[in-house]
Structures are given as structure tokens and as C-alpha cells.
Amino acid sequence: MDTKEDAALPVVDASKGALLVLFLVTVIDMIGFGIVIPFLTYLVEDLTPASQEASIGIWVGVLMTSYSAAQFLFSPFWGSLSDRIGRRPVLMVGLVGNTVFFTMFGLANTLLIALAARFLAGVFNGNLAVARAYIGDVSTPQQLATRMGLIGAAFGLGFTFGPFIGGELSDPASRWEVFAGTIFDANPYLLPCAVASLLSILSLLVAIRNLPESLPLERRTKSERTSWTGGMIQTMKNTSSMLRSGSVSVVIWVSMLFIFGFTIMHAVFILYTQMSPTDGGLAFSEADNGRVFAMIGVTGILTQGFLIGPLSRRLGTRRLIPIAIAITGLGLVLIPYTEFEHRWLHILIVGTLISIGNGLFQPSSSSFLTRIAKSEGYELGVVMGAQESVGAFARIIGPLTGGFVWVYTDARDWPLDYHTAFHLCGFLMILAGIMSLRLPPLPEDEMNQSSEPSFAEE
Prior knowledge:
Blueprint: H1 3-8, H2 16-34, H3 40-47, H4 56-85, H5 87-107, H6 111-124, H7 128-138, H8 141-168, H9 183-186, H10 190-210, H11 228-242, H12 246-273, H13 286-315, H14 317-334, H15 343-375, H16 380-409, H17 420-436, H18 444-447
Helix pairs in contact: 2-7, 2-8, 2-10, 3-4, 4-5, 4-6, 4-7, 4-12, 4-16, 5-6, 5-10, 7-8, 8-10, 8-13, 11-16, 12-14, 12-15, 12-16, 12-17, 13-14, 13-15, 14-15, 14-17
């Protein structure tokens, strides 16, 4: 479409209500990802036959991965569909899907039903790109950074409250008499999933009233639809090209190794904390685990809100990246060395290290990649799309790797025991740290800027 014609077309301005809907869509997306973390291991244990107990770690990894895999596979579909029919109906469909499949997961009575529900929830939560596109439709260049920051803030809040809700509301019948003998007694993990569904319904009602269509008919795609296969092939080609593109490729590889190591922890953390003290674990409940992840989320929000700016100005983004990797890696490796008598103090320390390191790394790496891509003349959309694809791939293989490593090492003798998966996290962080030392210096006029976004994505 001609750019002059584009410029003449009307632009729908976003009301506060519309921005609230986009904020809620993103929060629900991250709640959907994080809500199962505190209780997933317990749910798998409940649904696994006694003869297959050795596969619990693998099932935890598969269920954790299925959500990210579905988002990776279907995000291009939702984005393309929204270009043709508009953003509003696609966002609505996503909220309806969330309502159905969150509840389905809470009612699952077999591992296959749980897997199907988790995958389908990821399919319908693959419309985050549509929320970003909506903001692009309704924002001037001056408004864009602030409004995209709103999406980043929603990421942080969703990941904080998701695990907290999942932990605090799990197995309510054993904690509150009012739930005894009800459906929540027979389905101990239904309540947090039902709360997530309720939030999705409320967001849908707000969207029906306050979310206008952002893409006028004149701006919608008129060309022939690109097939899903064609879109995936093009995405892989773009990603492959960026992974071989000098300085840009270094940043993307560093991000992939970091996310890979970080998401291994998502699968094995609960497997470790729920073990009995006699086996080296902490005997944590679902609520205990939810509080730990909520604490990590809150610390990450504070880090991105208050620390990233001053530290970037003082140290520079290029120096901050390896420092953030080292802090995160140290926290991950120290997790399984917690003494039961001092478990909360130790978990507080390692959780703070992990959340600060991750909170510094995510906005720093994204900012560095943006500035390098611009300074070297790359198309920013292609570069960011490649980073997102590689990050999604790392989030898929991370939990799977963690689950397999746990199953084959946790019952063995040191050093190949329950420490091994966390050692692997540390090893991947070492690789990321070494590679980050190859990052090129930024142009001098950009080194003095502090453009890191607050509340960046994980």
C-alpha cells in the first residue's frame, strides 16, 4: 500500500478503556503462563499412575512446554488474521478461549486432557502480537514507547500474580471448610483456574464495551492470504538470517542461551522444593511455591522500575548484560544447596539474585539489540521477530530439557543427582556470559542514552 495514501487514512485514537483492555489481555496471558507453576508438579503426581511415577518430571516439562509451543505456532496465524478481519474480533476470541480452556485444565482428570487443555489455552493466548499491533494502530510515534511500556508492565504483573493465585488457591478443600465436599474437593486445582477464567470473562465484558476496532477497512490486508506453512517458513528464514548477522546474531544467541537456562528452572524448581527434607528437598506446599514466584516477580518489577535506569547510565548497557547474566546464574546454581532449617532465608536470597539478574538482563538485551540493529541499518521488525522466535524456541526446549534431566539424575548420587539440572542452568549462563563479552561497543552518542524500557518482557 502506498505510504502517502497510508498517511492520509484516519487513525483511531485509543481511549483509556481500550488501553485498559489491552493491559488486561496481556496480564491474563502471563497469568495463564504462570498460574500452573506452583501446583503443576502436584497435579501431575495426582494424575500419574503408580506404574509411571518415574515419568513425572517429563510430564511436568511437557505440560510446561505445550503452552509456549502453542503460542509460538499460532501467534503468526492470529496476527495475520487480525490484519484481514480487524484486531477487535481476534482479541475477543482469545478471551473466550481463555475462559474455556483454563477451566478445562482445572477439571482435567487425565494427563492427556490436561495436555490438550494446556495446549489449547496457549493457542488462544497466542494473540499478544495482536495487542501490540492494536497499540501500533492507535498510537503516534510520541505515544508508542509509553504505550508499549504498558504491555511490559502487564507482563511483570501477570507473572507476579499468576503464580501467587495458583499457589494460594490450590487445594482449597484442605484449607477452608467451605470448599469441603464440593467440586473443588474432587478437583483441587480447579479454583485458581476458575479465577483465571473469571478474570478473562471480566476482561471480555470490558472489551465489549470499551474496545473499538483499531484497523479501518481501508488499512486491512486485501492481498491473498499467506498460508500458515508459508508464514512459518518465512519466519524461519528471517530467523536463520539474523542468527548469522554479525553483531545482531551475538545478542540474539546470548538471549537464547539466557532464556534456555532460565526456563529449565521453571520445570525443576517445584520438583526440587516439593521433595521431602530427607531427600534434600524443602517440603514446600503449592502456596509456598506461589509465594516464592510472586516474590521473584515483585523484585523483578522493582528492578526494572527503579534500578535499570541508574545502572545503565553508570555502567552502560554493554557492561550490564554480562553482570546480569552472572547474577542470575549464581542464583540458579545455589537453589538446590538450600538447608531445610534456613530454607526461607536462603530462598529469599537466591530468589532476589535471580529476579534482579533477570530484571536487568531483559530490558538491557532488548535495548542493546534495538540500538545495534538501528546503527547497522537492519530492519527492526525482522530483527525483533527473529529475537522473539528464538526466545520462544528456548522457552519450548528449556522446560523439556529440565524435565528429562531431572528424571534421569534426581535419584542418583552426586554430582549427577537433583543438583544436576540447576548446574546445567549455571553452565548455560556461563556460555551466555562468555558470548556476551563479544558484544561490540555501541556508538558513542548512544552510550550516554538511557532508553531501556521499564518492565520489559521475560
